[in-house]
Amino acid sequence: MFAAPPPRHPVRSLCAGLLRLATRLAPASERRTWVREWEAELEHSWRRATRGSGLRAGAAIEMIRRSAGAVVHAAWLRGQDWRPEMLMQDLRFAIRSLLKRPLFTGVIVLTIALGIGVNAGIFSVLYHVVLEPLPFEHPEDLVMVWERNIPRDNPTNVVAPANFFVWREETSSFEDLAAVTWFSQALSGTEEPERVGAVAVNASFFPILGVRPYRGRFFLPEEDNAASTERPIVLSYAFWQRRYGGDEDVLGRVIQLNGVDRTVIGILPPQFSFDYLPYAFNATGTQDVWMPQGFEEAARTWRGRYLQVVGRLKDGVSLERARTELTTVASRLEREFPDGQAGWTVNIVPLQEQVVGDARPALLILFGAVTLVLLIACGNVANLLLSRSTARSQEVAVRTALGASRLRLVRQLLTESGVLSLAGGGLGLLFALGLVKALVALGPDVPRLAEVGLDGAVVAFTLGVALLTGFVFGLAPAVRASRPDLVDSLKEGGARAGRTGSVLRARNALVVTEIALALVLLVGSGLLIRSFANLMDLGVGFDTEHLMSAEVALSSRAYPEQAERLQFFEDLVDRLQRSPGVVAASAITNLPLSGSQTGTSFWLNDRALPAEGEFPVADIRWVHRDYRTTMGIPLIRGRFFDETDRADAPLRVVINETTARQFFPNADPIGRTISMPWGDTLVAEIIGVVGDVRHNGPEVEPRPKLYWHHLQWQDRANMSVVLRTEGDPAAAAGTIRAAVRELDPAVPLYNVHPMTYWMAEAMASRRFTMLTLAVFALVALTLATIGVYGVMSYNVSQRTQEFGVRLALGAGRRDVALQVIRSGLKLVLVAVAIGVAGALAVSRLLRGFVYGVTTRDLTSFAVAAGFLILVAVLACWWPAHRAGRVDPIRALRFE
Amino acid sequence: MARRTLGITTVQVLHAVASGTRYGFDIMDQTGLASGTVYPALSRLERTGLLRAKWEDPRIARDEKRPPRKYYQITPDGKERLLRAAERIRELERTLPRDATGLEASTA
User: Distance (Å, rounded) from C-alpha A402 to C-alpha A409?
Assistant: First the structure.
């Protein structure tokens, strides 16, 4: 051979060295013939060159050059493995071999798809709702400015106009501030009267946000003035489309709102929305028309807080500096005007924080949950790939024996897991799309949810996770499978390779982890489900079933006198009470659960007058006399209103239980008098105590509440009618419409909903979190069950011979089956112990979400653990059954 | 791969084998190409079926006290491809310039 030692010659040694290097480089599959060819050629050359007078210099250089060519040749051959068509061949092979095991492939693709799908879905929501900046210019400089009420501990109270004026005029931290109020108006003077959502803003509002008009223009500073004769309005894009079909000629047109002629000057861009405000309730829930505030001098008052203020910080001004400046102003005002300002200071909240603040914890919890699901899915994938690699070690051994290189094998196996990941990832994206749609449909209370969609970032994230999962878990089995103990694998038929040591331990650890993670999710969703049930049991203080409601608004132009308005509602309720199918009917100013709210400060006449700023506060409602019986609110003491409480009778008031408990803990409130500073001080006698109504949903503790008879003091033009019906309350919508039409066809009706609708709305965000977490827990449970089943049935197939021997030696089939279940149960119990510990640690995060249970609620833990154990044992059942049915003869022959 | 037109060096190697030069190193001698060029070309031609490789009669090698060499023969496919390549090269030769006339514009 050329490389053989003698005769030694430096050139020959050098050439031999190059050839050895090249040999190592050459692909294993062709190495033998390749070396033979090169050795023969070099040997032949060498002989020719050294014939006669020894090796001349030129010939020596030529020899070395040619030997170096061997390296080039070997490298070229190696490179042929990586040609696109070779990779395509790998791909085809991978797909073929995956299709040959449809069950394995299906389960693994589905597992990846579930994990990735929920992950990408939640990631989309989280990204859009929490992480993505608001769609305004430099949104990081936008803030909301609130008054903070110290005694009542309300950090975001609406703002008194006088404060807004002072802030705007006397501070330097802001580029500008704008006050926003949201209400509703009657659009009239056209063929079809309609209630529209209206927003009044300062002219500075749109420049602060950096929004540009879609058509026309926005308000000029001089138009934002009570003295201005201009009455400009700007339409939202949606309203422009809906009401005017996107007609460009609407610019310059005059339309009538609440009887006032207003000129359309601009259209907002389609994507613009500012429904982020926490006190954003009006009748329609929409923002159709925008108008300038046009504050009058008289509006500059300390009393009556109703503004929501948005501002833009000047370049380089920190939140802290602005806070300090405003606080200084506030303390000066408190000294100067103790009458209205005592107990009040200022609070600045970044707009982004304001918008997403409430939704953030729930979404972060869901994101945590979804990460657990992804981990479980990855665990399952790893498990399945591990079991596959064990099963394939024989195939790998054969291919290695036939000369396949390690790199080629690893590449082949990685191609397979890559194909699996991509298929799973692709399917997962479809899942994610569906999930996002479902979440948008389910969670109306989550801010900015309408903006959510799958986008490039999410797709990239998903594909990244999919590929990483495949490669990480494809790699370990691939490396392991590519270096099996060749001889053993060939001899034993590979049957036992997987049972030995580390692989089994790894697979058990994976399954234990999966079960433990699934338990954490089950416990979490159990806690939320129990909380939800507790809240539904608790209720809101009246029966929401068979109860219909609708809001009725009278225009001040058609009904200028208060007496007319009161008479209208008297007549309406009277008419409704006489309608067929109606058990009872009544009316109230702020319907429970609808979010609308009115409050007042008051004092008790037989106590010392509280200091300025320390007056007690109560919700206030004006009701028709039959309100209590219609709603089914229990009477605790005294009486509710009746026919004797006429407009000219002495003022009377009914209080709720919370008021009685807080202000008359050991006394009878009946017969006492209270006063309220509404214009002239109103003094009224307490005639009764009724049960609490949870106005903002079951989980919000009731506040003190004062009910007034609407005939005695009611300056509102709108009330909600409530109807107790015999049958389906939704069917009563027609009854209400007919009654209103008979009285006055021009009066609009809105928010026509059964009370159960408002209840569902009040529980929507909680239901959203609960259902989502429950779905995740179920997905996790399913994945973990697949994991348990996979491991157990694999173990059984590996132990076929052992079971055969046992059966042959006289063990009963039941014993064998029980043995399998026992070994499965052992895994599950270990997992449950770990899972319980994990859940104890993690469930504390749910503290803000549970109601009526602790985060260590024994029932939730026990039910979740019991359920999990049951399901896991069921997953062991089939493998155990198979173990018991092993045919001893065949099993032993197999050996 | 099979449909790709052959490069000039590949044609040179194929032609060398067709004209009776059978061993790798002899092809280098005849074409003046380096071994790092000739051998990949041989391997490629063998893989695409234009050449066929055989081992020399071991008796001859034994007589010369050296290992048997691998030699290459052209296949019918190879002949056809070689003829087509030759046609293409002649066509190319006709159109290529014989002196610098007409190239000034591009070299200026």
Answer: 12
Q: What is the pLDDT of residue A583?
A: 93
Which pLDDT value is given to residue B1? 42
Using alpha carbons, select from A686, A642, A641 the residue that is nearest to residue A660.
A686
Euclidean distance between CA atoms A617 and A157, whole angstroms = 13
Name residue, tokens 């926490």: A278
Strands A603-604 and A682-690: unpaired
Q: Do B69 and A69 touch (CB under 8 A)?
A: no
C-beta atoms of A33 and B34 within 8 A: no
Shortest alpha-carbon distance between residue A34 and chain B (Å): 10
- pLDDT tens column, A302-356: 777 888 999 999 998 999 999 999 999 888 888 888 777 777 889 999 988 887 7
> pLDDT tier at B102 (50, 70, 90 boundaries)?
low
CB-nearest partner of B69 from A41, A69, A85:
A41
Residue A772 · residue A439 · CB < 8 Å: yes
State residue A799 phi and psi, 5-degree precision: -105, 20
**With the C-alpha atoms ordered A100, A104, A105, A107, is the resulting torsion angle positive or negative?**
positive
Looking at the complex, report in whole angstroms how far the Cα of residue B70 sits from the nearest Cα belonging to chain A. 6
In this prediction, residue A185 carries a pLDDT of 81
Report the b/e string of B26-63 with b at 16+ CB within 10 A: bbbebbebebbbbbbbbbbbbebebbebeebeeeebee
Tell me how close the Cα of B80 comes to any Cα of chain A, in angstroms: 25
CA angle A93, A94, A99 (to 5 degrees): 100
pTM: 0.67
For residues A528 and A521, what is the distance between their CA atoms, to the nearest angstrom? 11
B50 with B77: CB under 8 angstroms? yes
Contact A37 B25 (CB under 8 A): no
Q: Flag whether residue B15 sits within 8 Å of chain A, measured between CB atoms.
A: no
